[in-house]
């Protein structure tokens, strides 16, 4: 065999070996990556299971008793009226709220909706169930959205609110409307809100916190408008600026972590009687991109049933006088009753 042929064969052998080694190395890296990801997911599931058990054990050991826990409003649609508007001070109300309120018809059913839907009821039905704080996110064309997914126009929300107000007499609503993260403000949106809701709007005023519901009537809506780039509503105007509704949103799908963080942030707030803003705690958990469970309902369900336990823990830790707005995904009657019950206890001087 000539030297040239031998050299060619030698080079081919080296190339084949190198190619085989490279392929083997890539396969090994892929296996290691998949193994690490699987291990991470296994640990994640263990953590979630542990945290769920932590809340379950706490509920079993501490129970859910607090002043007013046995109270049930005879008419949730008119629960403020039932407590006597002349006795209910605005800053002492425990306001039942909903998170991402206008998502009942967001996205496509069975396709994208499960990843963004936080409420199954319309705004009207939420209010009729007893919710008194709604959280609305809009984009530039005035459509309601949650991230990149959209639903109906904000006109649907406004009409639902008006319908509810027309059927009640003494119910006050906190209507929070904000431009969703990553979106532009709708043009002339402040003017739009004033034109649509003007007769019902309670003007921005620090003195409102020390007034009773009866003193605010016939005005019915505290509308907090939170633009991203447009100017904030002016002091004394018909809309309230973002500083009047505060929270510390915690982005986690771990229920005990969220529960404890809520207590921690609440402990850093002044009592309701000495602050001139509303503070919100959200009884929610949020799907995470690195976790295989991405649908809202099963993730938020990890904490959903512990609203009463949270109120009990507020009393246990001396924080009950700081609780004000308490919001949830997929609001139900029991959650409303817990908030109304504590409000009743405050009205009666029992909490």
UniProtKB/TrEMBL annotation:
Low complexity bias locations: 18-29
Region entry Disordered, spans: 1-29
Signal peptide bounds: none
Domain Phosphatidylinositol-specific phospholipase C X: from-to ranges: 96-226
PROSITE patterns to which the protein is assigned, alphabetical: PIPLC_X_DOMAIN (PS50007)
Cited Pfam families: PI-PLC-X
InterPro entries: PI-PLC_domain, PLC-like_Pdiesterase_TIM-brl, PLipase_C_PInositol-sp_X_dom
Origin superkingdom: Eukaryota
PANTHER family, per the entry: PTHR13593, SI:DKEY-266F7.9 (PTHR13593:SF113)
Protein name as it appears in the record: Phosphatidylinositol-specific phospholipase C X domain-containing protein
Source lineage: Eukaryota, Viridiplantae, Streptophyta, Embryophyta, Tracheophyta
């Amino acid at each position: 065999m000539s030297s040239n042929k031998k050299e060619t064969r030698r080079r081919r052998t080296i190339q084949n070996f190198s190619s085989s080694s490279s392929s083997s190395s890539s396969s090994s890296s892929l296996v290691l990556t998949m193994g690490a990801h699987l291990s991470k997911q296994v640990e994640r599931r263990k953590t979630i299971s542990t945290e769920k058990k932590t809340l379950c054990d706490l509920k079993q050991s501490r129970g859910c008793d607090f002043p007013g826990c046995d109270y049930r409003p005879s008419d949730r649609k008119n629960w403020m009226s039932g407590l006597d508007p002349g006795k209910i001070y605005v800053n002492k109300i425990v306001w039942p709220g909903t998170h991402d309120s206008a998502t009942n018809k967001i996205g496509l059913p069975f396709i994208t909706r499960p990843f963004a839907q936080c409420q199954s009821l319309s705004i009207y039905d939420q209010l009729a169930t007893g919710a008194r704080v709604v959280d609305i996110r809009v984009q530039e064309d005035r459509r309601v959205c949650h991230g990149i997914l959209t639903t109906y126009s904000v006109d649907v929300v406004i009409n639902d609110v008006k319908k509810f107000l027309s059927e009640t007499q003494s119910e006050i609503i906190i209507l929070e409307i904000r431009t969703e993260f990553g979106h532009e403000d709708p043009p002339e949106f402040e003017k739009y809100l004033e034109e649509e809701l003007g007769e019902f709007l309670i003007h921005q005023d620090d003195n409102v916190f020390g007034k009773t519901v009866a003193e605010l009537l016939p005005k019915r809506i505290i509308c907090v408008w939170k633009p991203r780039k447009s100017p904030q509503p002016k002091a004394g105007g018909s809309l309230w600026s973002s500083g009047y509704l505060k929270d510390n949103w915690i982005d986690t799908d771990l229920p005990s972590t969220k529960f404890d963080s809520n207590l921690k942030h609440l402990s850093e707030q002044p009592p309701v009687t000495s602050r001139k803003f509303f503070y919100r705690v959200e009884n929610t958990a949020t799907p995470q991109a690195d976790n295989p469970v991405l649908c809202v309902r099963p993730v938020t369900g990890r904490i959903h049933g512990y609203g009463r336990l949270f109120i009990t823990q507020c009393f246990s830790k001396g924080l009950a006088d700081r609780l004000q707005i308490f919001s949830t995904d997929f609001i139900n009657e029991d959650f409303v009753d817990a908030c109304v019950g504590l409000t009743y206890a405050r009205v009666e001087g029992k909490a």
